[in-house]
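Appendix B, Record 12. Input sequence as logged:
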Amino acid sequence: MPYIDITTMRGMMPRVVTSMLPEHSAVLAEDCHFRFGVITPERQISGVEKTFTIKPKTIFHYRDDFWFAWPDVVDVIRSPIAQDPHGRIYYTDGRFPKVTDATIATKGDGNHPTSSYRLGIPAPTTAPVCTVQQGGDVSDDNPNDDETRFYTETFVSDYGEEGPPGPASLEVTLRTPGTAVQLTLAPVPLQNASIKRRRIYRSASGGGEADFLLVAELDASVLSYTDKIPAKNLGPSLATWDYLPPPENMTGLCLMANGIAAGFAGNEVMFSEAYLPYAWPEVNRHTTAEDIVAICPLGTSLVVATKGEPYLFSGVSPSTISGSRIPSMQACLSRRSMVAMEGFVLYAGTNGLVSVDANGNAALATEQIISPEQWQSQFNPVSIVAYPWRGEYIACYTKPDGKQDVFVFNPAGMDIRYLSTPFDCACVDLVNDVMRVVSGQNMSAIAGGSLPSTIRWHSKVFSLPERTSFSCLRVKSPTPERVGITVLADDVPVIHLAPGSFSGSVVRLPAATGQNWQILVSGFGQVERITLSTSMSELPV
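Logged structural output:
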């Protein structure tokens, strides 16, 4: 073999024996990327852009210079309501679901959000007490025009969200048409749902159907009301019968493309009414065979990863959503490992990263590049916390020695690489194509610095006939002075050129022979081609 010529470069495929790797693959790739098909240094992390008052595990860019931070794992969604005047966000933090808005979230100079409300509107617990006010000529009482009524009420939040009704009152019988009814209402119980008003409904019948129609809307502090409203002046019917608050132990809040919010608790996945993330009817709940670990929306579908097989739920409306079990024996090992990529979801499974698309097709995405044994022993999948950025899967994890590390999986190139800058949490800014990371209390932009990182790229091991020798090394680079090269023959250094050593693109090698040859690249410059040749005349064009 007159030469070794590496014209394209890629990342790592740990499953493949080093001598059997494709010529462009690496044994080690760190702090570099291959978006141009060659070795290109990642830029260094930026300087500190913001310092939080806490050490967050979750950050969220609200708007402008306002960043929300939590010391716990939190799932956040923006309001699906069109042009929401309140600027609401909804989140679950493991305690109970919450909602906050621009008015209460951004007060003060400390950590944000400053305050929040409990998500959902509770039902009243006490029925209205009704008293018929006698009046008129009772001697004209006609039993054929008696009217029987029931009353109920609902609470309404400061956002105009109406909750489910409370218990109905005792039966009220009006002997004379037009008789007034005095209602005594219970005080609004202590709560954290921002209840500002209450709506009174009364039963009415017509056309063979009975319903509760709106009588009046009152301030929440009003405890007495006299109903003199004629039947023809009643308002719309009660529509929030099952608009229950979400369960307190619901977590994993996310938003599907059709405006339906989803969450889970135990082995139960639940869906809100469309564009009403405060209303969670019990009929919109489904169960799985095993406890749920993570959920992630894909368009109008929801991928549900469990401690057993995954599921796919889909439907155009909450009432039509149905689920099916995906035939994949890959349990989800880390809740925070599940992220939505471009058209599919990835999560840390038992034997590697698992991909699931919107049609329910599942595959072991890393099957060809990482063995199950390597996955468990080297990548500690239960510790993975991942983020999608630029079409790649960025994953923080804890190594067997307890140190933090970061690997990057490229689904298109089917390889992985490492970053030497571990972090605690991150947030991806799609508008500016920036991934901001937090270490401790300080937030920076990954690859946001002006200087290139110091790369490490080790080629495959080229297994050649015994006593093979090369005399020339050529490195093609726009900045060869930034590149460092080490050539190994049977693990023995033949030549080591530190960054700054190259005066031209070709150097002579010392006399050496070997069977297994490898090239190690370092420095902070782009490398487009590397060639080893037996002579200058044998160098390929």
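The longest strand covers residues 195-206.
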